[in-house]
Description:
This protein starts with a strand and ends with a strand. Helix 1 (18-32) packs across helix 2 (40-54), helix 3 packs antiparallel against helix 4 and helix 5 crosses helix 6 (193-217). The strands form 2 sheets. It has a 4-stranded antiparallel beta sheet, with helices on one face. Strands 5-4-7-8 form a 4-stranded antiparallel beta sheet. Helix content is 37%, strand content 19%. By secondary structure, the protein is of the alpha+beta class.
Amino acid sequence: MLDGLSTAGLTTGCRHGVPWYVAHLGGYLVAALSEPDRPLTDGLADALERVAAMHPECDLGNPGTPSATVAILRHRYGVLDHLVLADSPIVFEGAQDYSVVTDLRVDDVLPELRAEVERHETHTPEHKDALQRFVLAQRQTRNTADGYWVAASGPEAAEHTLTGTTTLGEVHAAAVMSDGVSRLVSEYGMATWSEVFATLRAGGPRELIETVRKVEATDPTGRRWPRYKSGDDASVAFCEW
């Protein structure tokens, strides 16, 4: 799961754009991890280097260079390897409970500017201006020791991922998703993880995403749930065995 970071209408130093970056990073990740014994961190670092090498003419040192969250779940020899970088979570369904692997370091960055964005309704000039100020400041902390980490132009981001291994027998199912979906539970509080997995079993990712959109439609300007945009990119991969 790769979720490209919003540019908020600001320049990135790259003529290709976030969709191009995400598409090529995904392709290189699949290739880099074709060998099942290769560590996920090594595969991510290799993919990051290869994408950077594709566009050396762009300003890859620009703090707003195209970037993305990363969440990887790999089945290997009866175990599940996972890697998470930034806030696209992996949720495991166990026999008794649900466990969530996510990296929320971004939430600790610049809380005053975040609060200023959330004071304004979406689709207003005030919200747009506050969001641009926030993103500009955020970029200065992105991929630094005092900030948070995402996939961008440097392989060193792979060293700051959350990784682990789960025995296949410990869990019944897993879902890898963008935060545009997980917010149904984490931010809106309109479902439990048990309800999310029940929806996935009954109607698949499409039904879950439609549920998120219906909830967001009840608050189109972010008065009940202050946020950066009315609805964020939403993707889900659901696995059960």
